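Feature request, filed as a ticket because there's no other form

It would be nice if the structure record came with a short human-readable summary line next to the tokens. Right now we just get the raw output. Example of a typical job, pasted below so the devs can see what we mean:
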Amino acid sequence: MKITWYGHSAFRLDFADKGVLIDPFFTGNPAFVGDRDAAVRGVTHVLITHGHGDHVGDTLAIAEETGATVVSNYELLMWLASQGLRNFSPMNTGGTVDLGGFTVSLVRAEHSAGMVEAGVTFPLGNANGVVVKAPGEPTVHHMGDTDIFGDMALIAEIHAPKIGLVPIGDRFTMGAKTAAMAVRRFFDFDTVVPCHYGSFPIIDATAAAFIRDMAGAKTKVLVPEKGRAFTV
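Raw output as currently delivered:
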């Protein structure tokens, strides 16, 4: 499997004949410095952890351009359908869907979800993490936006993820210290990739504190170059 980080919480997973984007926030993402056309080329699926603009991102445009299947919670997908989304697979927390060659599970996250229109916020289902499993590939857990919570231990027991995409930026998610505690206490990751930092000035600018707080852990911390794929 090849994984590419595009800044903030946007990732792409490439394996077999699949191209899977997670939280494809390109337009308006201050941390995105890559080629958007290259980032979406060959995409087969888009996974959205929750209904906030910096995670829904360019989903509608990408789905229209590529025909990709969009996967997320029911409420968010019904709202996107009202905006013109046509190809989607709805689910909810605890569920797993087989997408042909891989599965996606929605797991719990401690966060909010909703959009603001005309000054009014309307909810869009639960915030989630996503777990991606494919034959012969390491299981990937994108935590979405979340705080630490005790049932992370159940996610680890049920899904046994080996690659963690972990928010560390503070203010809207776990900060570095708490994120490192979550990884150390609850998971048996081979590799963690910090995310949800270095984009907006009101969240942490670098992963330095997380790297420091993970010192001595058996889990490898990987801070990839944005837009450059790495193999796991």
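Something like this underneath would help us a lot:
The longest strand covers residues 103-108.
The chain has one domain: 2-224.
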